[in-house]
């Protein structure tokens, strides 16, 4: 079994996932995919706090709770599919690197969040990161959260390689794989590499 780390970068309703395998000195991408985290059959599922904005308190809570439950289920199903496929290919997943926002902590009260459009955006980002954490923990995978602005420095420290070299190596991985290889995949790869190097 080769050792694999996953890297995840969440968006509203989906996340980019990259699986990185092999020795930390020369890892290779063994999987990359977009995982869906919002059920298109549920109105407002992609942006539940936006959907709940302006609704009566009980209705707002019901909308958000329904969407969170659905997203948690989708995250577990998507992650299970990845784990099964990787296991069939003789890869053992060690853990996940998850990109975090750099913002301040959210208030605990949902109605305080709904009173501020900036907090609504922040809450949706936090919700999708949280469903990925819970799905990972459901399968006993350790999650390493890294703030996006700190990622390159953390990856350099973990791997013992200078940041410019890491950026060059990640770009080369993308060239050999072909598109898509956007910022999402690059950052997810660096997060996975950090976990792989620390394992």
Describe this structure in words.
By secondary structure, the protein is an alpha/beta fold. It has one domain (2-198): Ribonuclease H-like superfamily/Ribonuclease H (Nucleotidyltransferase, domain 5). It contains seven helices and five strands. Strand 2 (14-21) and strand 3 form a beta hairpin. Helix 2 packs parallel to helix 4 and helix 5 packs parallel to helix 7 (183-198). It is globular. 38% of the residues are buried.
What structural class should be given to the helix and strand makeup? alpha/beta
CATH level 4 superfamily: Ribonuclease H-like superfamily/Ribonuclease H
Q: So how many helices?
A: 7
CATH first level: which class?
A: Alpha Beta
Distance between the termini: 15 Å
CATH architecture descriptor name: 2-Layer Sandwich
Please state the average pLDDT score.
95
Spatially, the strands of the biggest sheet line up as 3-2-1-4-5
The total domain count is 1
Q: In terms of per-residue confidence, which ranges show pLDDT below 50 for 5 or more consecutive residues?
A: none
Q: What share of residues are in beta strands? A: 15-25%
Order of helices and strands: EEEHHEHHEHHH
Rg, nearest Å: 17 Å
Instruction: Quote the CATH topology.
Output: Nucleotidyltransferase, domain 5
Summarize the biggest pleated sheet: 5 strands, mixed
Shape: globular
């Amino acid at each position: 079994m080769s050792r694999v780390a996953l890297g995840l970068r969440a968006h509203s309703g989906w996340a980019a996932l990259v699986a990185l395998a092999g020795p930390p000195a020369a890892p290779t991408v063994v999987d990359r995919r977009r995982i869906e985290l919002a059920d298109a059959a549920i109105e407002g599922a992609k942006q539940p706090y936006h959907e709940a904005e302006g609704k009566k308190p009980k209705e707002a809570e019901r909308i958000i709770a329904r969407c969170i439950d659905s997203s948690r289920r989708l995250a577990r199903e998507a992650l299970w599919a990845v784990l099964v496929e990787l296991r069939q290919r003789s890869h053992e997943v060690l853990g996940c690197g998850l990109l975090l926002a750099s913002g301040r902590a959210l208030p605990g009260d949902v109605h305080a969040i709904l009173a501020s459009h900036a907090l609504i955006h922040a809450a949706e980002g936090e919700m999708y990161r949280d469903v990925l954490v819970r799905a990972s923990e459901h399968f006993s995978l350790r999650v390493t959260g890294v703030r996006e602005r700190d990622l390159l420095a953390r990856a350099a420290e973990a791997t013992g390689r200078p940041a410019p070299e890491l950026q060059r190596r990640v770009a080369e991985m993308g060239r050999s794989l072909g598109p898509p290889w956007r910022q999402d995949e690059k950052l997810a790869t660096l997060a996975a590499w950090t976990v792989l190097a620390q394992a």
